[in-house]
Amino acid sequence: MEMWKNFKERLQVITGKFKTVNKTLAKLLVIAILWVIIYDFILVDIPEWFPKASVIGLLTRNLCFAFMTGFIFYFVNTHLSGHKTKVKTYRYVANKVSTLDNMSINLILSIKHTLSLQNSGYEVPSRDDVSHWCKQIPNHIPVSFRVMAYTNIFPNWFKLFEFIDTETIKNVKDLLTLRDSLDSETLRLITNIENCTTTFLNMSKGVPFNTQNNSLEFWDLHIYEYRKMCNQLVTHLKKEYKVYEDEYHYLERKEKRA
Questions:
Q1: How far is CA 82 from CA 73, 126, 208, 243, in A?
Q2: Where are the domains of the chain?
Q3: pTM value?
């Protein structure tokens, strides 16, 4: 039973290396292989449909072979190396993404705590709910915010937004050091999250200023967008990095068994 489980895990790891290949290149490889098979086993025995058709067929067959050779070179020398890097850095990336998400969750929890609202989970609240809550909260009052296992008290919401922005910048900067391990959607989301905190949430840079009614209404959209994008980032990581996660844990278990 244990041997069968190990075999399944190993097979999953091997297939995972192929699953992460660029989808367009994978489709072109299938087309190239099919064309070579069709040409060599079927078309060579059929009379030409038009003059020089055999020449065109041979040229395309040779191009398909060239593409297949190039794909093998790319897969062995580029893709496998990149795949290995993503597996090795998965835990680091996942932890940084989790930190960003937890800050957005804790921001919503701080809003609910201020209004003595019941915590109904970590889902993304609706824009209307966030707007309704923000209208009721003065922006100059002290606010509690959970950081890891501790709860900090900030003198006002401006200082809290400054803290969130500083932590976001730090985590995004750390993630960008592993740019080659991140796909384009992850890069888009983390840079948009940083832009949201730096340009909008922390627009005052921690210095209080007066708004129309001195509530959080001025920031309601940005609070909502911040939480939504952090949630999208976690969802994307769970879906697109599942292959790397599985292989990372497989290698960990393998190392422990050794």
A1: 14, 38, 46, 13
A2: 2-88, 90-254
A3: 0.87
